[in-house]
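Methods — Computational structure assignment.
A single polypeptide chain was analysed. Its primary sequence is given first, followed by the predicted tertiary structure written as structure tokens.
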Amino acid sequence: MNRIEHVAIIMDGNGRWADSRGMPRWKGHEAGTGAVRRAVESACRHGVGVLTLYAFSSENWKRPAQEVRILFSLFRRFLEGERTELVERGIRLTAIGRRDRLGPEVRSALEQAELATRGGRTLHLRLAIDYGSRQEIVDAVRSFSRQILEGSLHPQQVDEARTEAALSSGAPDPDLIIRTAGEKRLSNFLLWQAAYSEFHFCPKLWPDFDHLDFDAAVDDYYSRTRKFGALAASIG
């Protein structure tokens, strides 16, 4: 049985959850923070080492400005409100994605949470914020190009291992990717890293995602044989 080392979740459906209840869309994002806590608890219970949550994509800036402002206000409140508990539970928090477009208060709250939780060993919680996988790959290509022009890197040295190191931020590739709200696409999330990930699609909207849904995704994962391109019989 393959142990799950890294679970990644595309948290989808906050807006639809609110719309279906006649609420403003930000209420769905607010309710979604409860599902984040449940996912973190479930990951710890299953002994998952890394949990990556797709919190805000680079394309989400296209949403109404008021919704974006409220979303980042909720995000800052979450970071400040959960920091003590994360430390107590041994959960390390980091973020992937761009930071230059985040407001100073959000950046500060994020940096403080990262600093306070840096010693956590129970779970590595990664938040993908202003993240886009295509841009991440482009940034890696630009970095390699600069090194080649400077003479510190030869083109033949650019291989999968070096590229993976440039993209992984120290985390292994996700074993399992969960997406809620019934959608079945990656939406520019971990495109390189998801090459051999298993996928689980949950019909529930993100605010309704609970411990049993996480358990069902894990059970689904363990029901499969991961072959990584080889024949099942040849896998050690």
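Note: Strands lie at 6-10, 50-57, 91-96, 123-131, 176-179, 198-201.
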